[in-house]
Amino acid sequence: MRPVRFNITPKEAKIADSLMMAEMPEGHSGEGFFATKLSDVVGLARKNSIWPLPFATSCCGIEFMATMASHYDLARFGSERVGFSPRQCDLLMVMGTISKKMGPVLRQVYLQMAEPRWVIAVGACASSGGIFDTYSVLQGIDQVIPVDVYVPGCPPRPEAIIDGVMRIQDLVQNESIRRRGNEQYKELMNSYGIE
Ligand code: SF4
């Protein structure tokens, strides 16, 4: 019988090396206690449990599929629970060409998401219309919804998408729990006609 060959080199795995520990927020510690800000604790939990909603319309979506698959494995960042129900997700990932007809649909999905919510525009099309400078393509999703992070590329490689998710993680961790109620945020929403 022909022997089965695997194209991998077995390595001795040390469990301590394969565990990724979340960094502790800044605070004061002493014997038997640790004190920090509520915002930091909430940020730490949110950062490591982001639920993405992939809104993929074309080729950039394929890169996202690679990002979710075993080689790049977005689950390592606590984002393995990808969902298509806006009410449960907190990160809208827009990947692909968005036509003007699709704009209201995208906006509706955004509106259905509960606060706090974040948005990544993945790739040139979602960020600026890309090569499709035509009458039918939205020249950037920030014309209909606010965007937190733009990932450049046509298409961006999975590493770039992961970098975008990590930039979102930084925003999530450092966001004050009062931000969504402040005047500046309300002004931003009002500028998009969202109350
Ligand atoms: S940015 Fe490039 S790869 Fe991504 S959807 Fe547009 S044309 Fe396709």
Which SSEs are present, and which pair or pack?
Elements: H1 15-18, E1 27-30, E2 33-36, H2 38-47, E3 52-56, H3 59-68, E4 91-95, H4 103-112, E5 118-122, H5 123-128, E6 149-151, H6 158-174, H7 183-191
Parallel strand pairs: 3-4, 4-5, 5-6
Antiparallel strand pairs: 1-2
Helix pairs in contact: 2-6, 3-6
The structure holds iron/sulfur cluster.
Iron/sulfur cluster binds at residues 58-60, 96-97, 123-125, 130, 154-155.
Written description of the protein model:
The chain is an alpha/beta fold and 195 residues long. The chain has one domain: Rossmann fold (3-Layer(aba) Sandwich). Helix content is 34%, strand content 13%. The strands form 2 sheets. Strands 3-4-5-6 form a 4-stranded parallel β-sheet. A two-stranded antiparallel sheet has the order 1-2. Helix 2 packs antiparallel against helix 6 and helix 3 packs across helix 6. The radius of gyration is 20 Å and the shape is flat. Bound molecules: iron/sulfur cluster. The site of iron/sulfur cluster (SF4) has 11 residues, from helix 3 and helix 5.
